[in-house]
Design goal:
Length: 220
């Protein structure tokens, strides 16, 4: 059973949003950023931002805050995004195709090297520059390219079997968008994304907001 607990999970989930804002500032040639600027952008308290950034080991400059470029590198290093992760995506349907079109993955150090599917209509086509290959050739391609991560965008009914095949090929990291909990060896790391989970939280926020008239905030 996979039990890879990570401390400071809420802070880690905020890091990409900090990074997005910092990249915007960097492209606008802004040299420094304060915690108050990031706090306003995130609609959270400055002390939360300060504690989050302390996790990266970076220190600011009195009176001006943090150097934007240095903070970008500190966050990327903390998340391990300063090194490339070579991945394959399995399932090039609507969700898989959308992920392939997400341009910012390269900023996160994620390189989707191979895309696989079982549909004859998709095999041989290109999606955002990625050639979709036959899933029957998946094992050979993964071993050949020494991939370490798989992004699963397949039905839950077949996800366990496919995941086990991928583990046999040497995959140790899974980003699982399939609607199921995978049961894999203890040395395999799985991050499951439940898309409906975000909508469930939004729905509860709406209900409680209407119930007591208080705004529950934007993001968590």
């Amino acid at each position: 059973m996979n039990k890879h607990r990570v401390l400071n999970t809420p802070a880690i989930r905020r890091m990409p949003t900090y990074l997005h804002k910092l990249m915007l500032m960097y492209n606008q040639h802004e040299e420094y950023v304060s915690t108050s600027v990031l706090a306003k952008y995130m609609s959270i308290d400055s002390i939360v931002v300060r504690k989050d950034l302390e996790l990266t080991g970076i220190t600011g400059y009195r009176g001006v805050g943090y150097k934007v470029g240095e903070l970008i590198e500190a966050i990327r290093s903390y998340l391990g995004w300063d090194k490339w992760t070579r991945a394959c995506l399995v399932g090039a349907g609507s969700l898989g195709s959308a992920l392939l079109g997400f341009q910012e993955f390269s900023e996160y150090g994620l390189n989707i090297c191979e895309v696989f599917d079982i549909s004859p209509k998709r095999i041989g086509t290109e999606i955002y520059g990625h050639l979709v290959k036959d899933a029957r050739d998946m094992a050979a391609q993964i071993r050949k390219n020494r991939l370490e991560m798989a992004i699963l965008c397949i039905p839950g009914s077949c996800s366990q079997k496919v995941a086990e095949e991928l583990v046999d090929c040497g995959i140790k990291l899974f980003w699982n968008f399939a609607n199921t909990c995978l049961k894999l060896p203890a040395d395999v790391i799985v991050q499951r994304e439940v898309i409906a989970g975000g909508f469930a939280l939004l729905s509860r926020k709406r209900m409680e907001h209407h119930g007591n008239g208080n705004d529950m905030g934007d993001e968590e």
